[in-house]
Amino acid sequence: QRATATMGETPEPSPQAPLAVLSKVELRVSCKHLLDRDTLNKSDPCVLLLMQSQGQWMEVDRSEIIKSNLNPVFAKIFTVDYYFEEVQKLRFEVYDSHGHAGVGTHDDDFLGGMECTVGQIVAQKRVTKPLFLKYGKFAGKSTITVISEEISGNNGYVELAFRAKKLDDKDLFSKSDPFLEIYRIDDDRSEQLVYRTEVVKNNLSPIWEPFKVSLNSLCSCEEKRKLRCVVWDYDSRGKHDFIGEFFTTFEEMQKAMGENKVQWDCMNPKYKIKKRNYKNSGVVVLLDLKIHRVYSFLDYIMGGCQIHFTVAIDFTASNGDPRNSCSLHYINPYQPNEYLKALVAVGEICQDYDSDKKFSALGFGARIPPKYEVSHDFAINFNPDNDECEGIQGVVESYQSCLPKIQLYGPTNVAPIISKVARVAANEERTKEASQYFILLILTDGVVTDMADTREAIVRASYLPMSIIIVGVGNADFTDMQILDGDDGILRSPKGEPVLRDIVQFVPFREFKNASPTALAKCVLAEVPKQVVEYYSYKAFPPRCPQPDTPDSNLS
C-alpha cells in the first residue's frame, strides 16, 4: 500500500507532542550490479525515497534518471529531518525509467528495494545492502549504498558558474558533448559526488548553467578541503569519455568573486605522459561565485543580539471586578491568576536573552489616574518616562499595585500598543545591525475591537525587528483572533497589503491550563527563533562577532 506525497514534502512525525528536529541529514545514493531490464541498452535507473507515515509508505522525493548505467552514482542529495526519539523507516526503490513516460512503477520496471531506518544510516554513516525484488527475492547481485551526513553548522550555500574553452574533441563526426562533475575528497580519501552539470551538446567551449550547492555538501564547510573536478564527453550508452580533470579548493574558488575569474588547465594524466608537447585538454573557467550565508538564531544570540520584552495587559471591564473572586484579575493570595501565569511562563524564558533584565510593562482599556481618562497604552508603574520594571518580579509587583488604582473600562484596542513598540523597533532598525529584537506579549480576555487598525499595525510591524505573541485569557470565543495568526493564510491590512513575515502567534491560555508553564512558553515561543532569522536574513544583517558573555540557549 503506498500513497504519494508532494515532491520534497516530508511526512509528518506521529501526532503526539511536536518533536524537536535534532538535525537534518543529507543522504547520497549509489547502486552496483543492477539488473538489466532493457534488451538493447542497459537500464536507465532512478531512485525513489519513501518514508513510512502512520503505516503507509509515502514518496518523499526521487533522484534524476541516469541513462544506460548498471552502476549509477546519483547526483541527487536527499535531505531528511532526523528525530532522535522516533524510529523513522525509509525505503529506497530503484526503477528502470522509460524516457518521457517518466518513472513507471510497474513490476517489470522494478529493479529492487531496500528498507532501513534513518537512525541506522546516521549511526553507520555508510550502509550497503542487497536490493530485493517482490516476495523477498534477491535482485541478482544488486546492491545499494546510502551515505549519510549530518548538516551541522549549516552556514549557507554557494552559487557557481563554470564554462570551458577549447576542450579536446572526442567524437568522430561531431564535437564533444561535455559535462562537469565536482567531487569532494573526504578525510578517508573517498570521493563524494557534489554536483553533476547538464550536458552541453556539440560544443568544445561550453557554458554550463549556474548552480547552487550547500557549503556543507561542497567542502564540509572547510575551505581548504580538496575538490576534484572532472570533464566528460557524454555518451548515450553510458560509456562517457574522459576529457580531463583538475584539483582545487573552495578557498581558491573564492578568487572568482566580483569581477575576477579563476581558471584551471583541464589535464588528462595519460596524455601528459605520452605526449611531449602536451599542454592541456582545454581550460575550465569559474566565471562567478556568490556566497549566500545562512545564519541560525544562535548565531544572532551569540553575536550579542538582545531580546527586548514588552508585556501588555488587558484592563477592560469584561475581565470582571478585581475585588471579586470570579474576576480574571482577582489577586488570590494562594495562587496566581491566568494573567500572571501566562506572564511568568513566557517572561522567564525571554529574560535569559535580555542583559539588563528590564521589561516594559503596559496596560490598555482602563481609566487611569489622575483624570481617569481611558488609555490604551499606559505604563503600569505610572511612570510615563520609563515604563520598564526590574525583571519579571518587577512586572508582577507593578501589576498588583496598579490594579486598585485603575478603573477597568474598554474597548479592547491593541493597535496603539503595537504601534508604540513598533516605533522603538523602527529606531533600532536604523542602527543597521542585529543588536535588538522586540517581543510584544499581549494578554487579553477577548477579541480586539479595533481589528482593522490592528491588522494595519501588524503589517507595518512585520517589516521591523519584532514579534507579537497574543495569549487569550479566560473562556471567551477567540475564533476571530485566529485571523491575526497567519498560519491559516496570509494576514493582510484592510487595504489588502500582505505581511512581509508571519510575526503573530495566538494561543488560548485555556488549552494549557492544566499543563506545565513550560508547555505554554514552548508553544508561544516556538516560532520566535525562525522569525528572528527571517527578519535579519531579509535585511541581510549578519550576526555581529560573538561576545564573550552570552546567555545559555533554551529558546532554540
UniProtKB/TrEMBL annotation:
Protein name (Swiss-Prot/TrEMBL): CPNE7 protein
Record-linked SUPFAM superfamilies: C2 domain (Calcium/lipid-binding domain, CaLB), vWA-like
Source organism of the structure: Pandion haliaetus (Osprey)
Keywords: Repeat
GO biological process, one term: cellular response to calcium ion
GO molecular function, one term: calcium-dependent phospholipid binding
A Pfam family: Copine
Residue stretches making up the C2 domain: 3-131, 138-265
Superkingdom of this protein's organism: Eukaryota
Protein family (similarity comment): Belongs to the copine family.
A GO CC annotation given for this chain: plasma membrane
Signal peptide span: none
